[in-house]
């Protein structure tokens, strides 16, 4: 096989090594634009797990690499005059030039042809090659030339950074946060040999501009940074190497291969340097591609298999990198607001990949400190005074909303069961909600319950508008209060334009085949093309629906519910006023956000006045529509601020479902960053939802301050006793009901 690698960075070189090692008859050429001793940057970082992959792929280069490494286990965080240390992380740094030298030698041993100072942007001269590797980096000329085939997307991030080196050998992977008169600066620093470290300086564009750095030369940048960090550098000097200020480009491609050309490494994808994955991903790409070529005889089949295998792994890493880079872009959100130990924990778990449980395994003392601090804060916030000893996992600390004290941070999400008879909840609802209250969650939220018959989503939805409804709900509330320590909330809503549809399992959002009722909404915009066109609400409609909410709230209070939530999310009636995609009114209820919020706030105020003052009220919102022109994350903070001003106690932060053409970016905990932002920028307690399934996630979210409560849907639907099982797995004693006392000595058998 004839192979040409355009680009002689770690990806191209390592791939060449692996292919020649697999079959010495392969004709492999690597073309590099730079000299062999000329590379950008200073050091690269690998985790211990990555090094194990290298050992399996090519033991000889692995041994040379590991001999050259500077290894560390600690992470030091410099924050407001303190240095907080976490250990057990297992990373290694290596000079980028040293890595290239090792790979160059190994290529020559295996008779790979290396050509330097060879600029290539067109693959046409290599038409006789069986495979052309585009390994020419983030600014790939090959990718740019054939962009229509790869369908490239490059997102230039707002922060500015500069890559420097220093003669100061930092003893740990080091993050430094330092304020100057211009703003907040972030440093990412790590040692890559016995005498040198990489030193990356990052700031928001506003801070960078106030410091006068947009036109700074390398020498001017060096002098500025040397002065700013003189104490941290302890007399050591900084080094430059094409040290120009940049914006990080997040590179994605819809396709990684076209004909016999394949993208690899930074040409195909980038991951922010704050998680140190760029070179790791590039070399792991090389491993996966070489294995695919060995497994499949035909190049097209191998390239398709390579992309199928690698894309999910890379996209997962990119999601983690995105969370990490956004944390650093928004560090001002946390700086000075979080106490040092929580700031450090938030930093360490910023990618959402590292969890409370991961850290506990790596550094139990650090996590014990976090848990003690968090338990003390929770005891103070809840009014209980003294934290339990030893400190419980963060998820088992109390939380207060007005006069309501929740025993832990787990909430069972309101999940429509579509099993009511003319709005009346049945035995199914008693068992569904009662079993999850017995299951240990601090709060169970009854499913979306509609304030009128015509406000239902489907004929099977629950309501709170008839005497029979009150009696049926009271039976459920009484069971929860009598037999469990859990509290129970009711979520009130009106389906609006998403009403008069079939039950979930009959065709979600599809109109009823017959027996439809008329719909109302903020504007006459149907949800689906085949959906009924709703009537645009007039003032009379608004008054009627507002009073229906008030009457339902009074009935909820009479039934004994502990808390009330108004549903202003997911495209239902109140949500349809908030989103500019569903509210196209030209009166004073449409237009700017403040106008679109007028009616939802009017309903909230009326319900808050009718709901007992000592009891809390929450509101569920969609923090983004996930669609062009829709509600933005920035606007959702304004929504939360206005609700807070009107007496809202908690924002349940969801996203999307307002329009059918939304394109959410799904993933583990994908909605938690929106909760994080609203909690800190609006200064209101939040509950987060969305793909939360482990106690490690719940502990991580609440301890880092990303939310105050975690709302579980499918996880607690799958396992009614999820919270109790989470307690047992963590060695936390959550008392069982007397009827179940025998379970205390039960040990599940593992097959």
Descriptive keywords:
FAD/NAD(P)-binding domain, 751 residues, globular, 38% helix, TIM Barrel, alpha/beta, single chain, 2 domains
Structure description:
Helix 15 links the parallel strand 20 (410-412) and strand 21 (443-450). The chain starts with a strand and ends in a 22-residue tail after the last helix. The longest helix has 31 residues, at 299-329. Helices cover 38% and strands 19% of the residues. The chain has 26 helices and 29 strands. The strands form 6 sheets. Strands 5, 6, 10, 11, 12, 13, 14 and 15 form an 8-stranded mixed beta sheet that branches. It folds into 2 domains: 2-329, FAD/NAD(P)-binding domain; 356-738, TIM Barrel, CATH 3.20.20. The model has no long low-confidence stretch (mean pLDDT 93). The chain is α/β, with parallel strands linked by helices and 751 residues long.
Shape: globular
The CATH architecture of the largest domain can be named as Alpha-Beta Barrel
Sheet with most strands: 8 strands, mixed
Structural class: alpha/beta
Instruction: Give the C-level CATH assignment of the largest domain.
Output: Alpha Beta
- Distance from N terminus to C terminus (CA atoms, Å) equals 48 Å
The overall pLDDT, averaged over residues, is 93
Count of helical stretches: 26
- Portion of residues in beta strands equals 15-25%
Tally of individual domains:
2
Q: What is the number of strand segments?
A: 29
Helix content: 25-40%
- Regions with little confidence, pLDDT below 50 for 5+ residues: none
**Rg (CA only):** 29 Å
The CATH topology label of the largest domain is TIM Barrel
CATH homology group of the largest domain? Aldolase class I
């Amino acid at each position: 096989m004839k192979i040409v690698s355009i680009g002689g960075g770690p990806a191209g070189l390592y791939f060449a090594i692996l292919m020649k090692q697999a079959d010495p008859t392969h004709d492999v050429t690597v073309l590099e634009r730079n000299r062999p001793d000329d590379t950008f940057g200073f050091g690269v970082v690998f985790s211990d797990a990555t090094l194990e992959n290298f050992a399996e792929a090519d033991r000889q280069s692995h041994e040379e690499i590991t001999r050259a490494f500077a290894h560390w286990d600690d992470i030091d965080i410099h924050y407001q005059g303190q240095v907080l240390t976490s250990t057990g992380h297992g990373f290694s740094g290596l000079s980028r030039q040293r890595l290239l030298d090792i790979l160059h030698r190994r290529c020559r041993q295996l008779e790979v042809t290396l050509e330097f100072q060879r600029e290539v942007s067109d693959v046409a001269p290599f038409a006789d090659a069986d495979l052309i590797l585009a390994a020419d980096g983030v600014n790939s000329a090959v990718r740019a030339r054939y962009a229509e085939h790869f369908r490239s997307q490059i997102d230039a991030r707002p922060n500015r950074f500069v890559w420097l080196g220093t003669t100061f050998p930092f003893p740990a992977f080091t993050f430094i946060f330092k304020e100057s008169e211009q703003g907040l600066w972030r440093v990412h620093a790590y040692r890559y040999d016995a005498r040198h470290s990489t030193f990356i300086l990052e700031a928001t564009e506003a801070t960078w501009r106030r410091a006068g750095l947009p036109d700074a030369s390398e020498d001017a940048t060096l002098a500025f940074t040397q002065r700013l960090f003189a104490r941290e550098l302890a007399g050591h000097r900084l080094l430059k190497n094409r040290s120009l200020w940049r914006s990080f480009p997040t590179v994605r491609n819809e396709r990684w291969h076209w004909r016999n050309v394949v993208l690899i490494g930074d040409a195909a994808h980038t991951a922010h340097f704050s998680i140190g994955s760029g070179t790791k991903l590039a070399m792991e790409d090389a491993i996966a591609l070489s294995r695919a070529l060995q497994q499949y005889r035909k190049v097209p089949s191998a390239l398709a298999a390579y992309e199928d295998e690698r894309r999910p792994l890379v996209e997962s890493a990119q999601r983690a990198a995105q969370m990490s880079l956004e944390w650093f872009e928004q560090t001002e959100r946390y700086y000075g607001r979080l106490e040092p130990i929580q700031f450090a924990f938030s930093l360490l778990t910023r990618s959402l990949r590292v969890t409370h449980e991961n850290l506990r395994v790596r550094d139990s003392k650090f996590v014990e400190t976090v848990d003690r601090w968090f338990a003390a804060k929770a005891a103070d916030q809840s009014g209980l005074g003294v934290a339990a000893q030893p400190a419980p996992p963060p998820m088992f600390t109390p939380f207060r909303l007005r006069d309501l004290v929740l025993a832990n941070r787990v909430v069972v999400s309101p999940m429509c069961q579509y099993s009511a008879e003319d709005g009346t909840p049945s035995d199914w609802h008693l068992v569904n909600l009662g079993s999850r209250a017995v299951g240990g969650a601090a709060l169970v939220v009854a499913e979306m319950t509609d304030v009128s018959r015509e406000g239902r989503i489907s004929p099977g939805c629950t309501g709170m508008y008839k005497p029979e409804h009150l009696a049926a709900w009271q039976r459920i509330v009484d069971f929860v209060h009598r037999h469990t320590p859990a509290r129970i909330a009711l979520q009130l809503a009106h389906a609006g334009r998403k009403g008069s549809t079939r039950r979930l399992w009959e065709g979600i959002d599809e109109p009823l085949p017959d027996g439809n009722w008329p719909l109302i909404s903020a504007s006459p915009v149907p949800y689906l093309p085949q959906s009924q066109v709703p009537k645009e609400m007039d003032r009379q409609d608004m008054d009627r629906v507002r009073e229906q909410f008030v009457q339902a709230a009074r009935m909820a209070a009479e039934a004994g519910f502990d808390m009330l939530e108004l549903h202003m999310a997911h495209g239902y009636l109140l949500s349809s006023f908030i989103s500019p995609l569903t509210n196209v009114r030209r009166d004073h209820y449409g237009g700017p956000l403040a106008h679109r919020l007028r009616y939802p706030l009017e309903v909230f105020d009326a319900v808050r006045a009718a709901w007992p003052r000592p009891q809390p009220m929450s509101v569920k919102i969609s923090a983004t529509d996930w669609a062009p022109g829709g509600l933005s994350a920035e606007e959702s903070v304004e929504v939360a601020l206005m609700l807070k001003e009107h007496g809202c106690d908690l924002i349940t932060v969801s996203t999307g479902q307002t329009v059918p053409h939304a394109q959410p970016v799904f993933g583990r905990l994908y909605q938690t960053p929106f909760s994080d932002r609203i909690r800190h920028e609006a200064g209101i307690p939040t509950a987060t939802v969305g793909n939360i399934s482990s106690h490690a996630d719940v502990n991580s979210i609440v301890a880092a301050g990303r939310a105050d409560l975690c709302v579980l849907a499918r996880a607690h639907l799958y396992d009614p006793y999820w919270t109790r099982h989470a307690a047992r797995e963590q060695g936390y004693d959550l008392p069982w009901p007397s009827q179940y006392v025998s379970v205390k000595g039960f040990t599940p058998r593992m097959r």
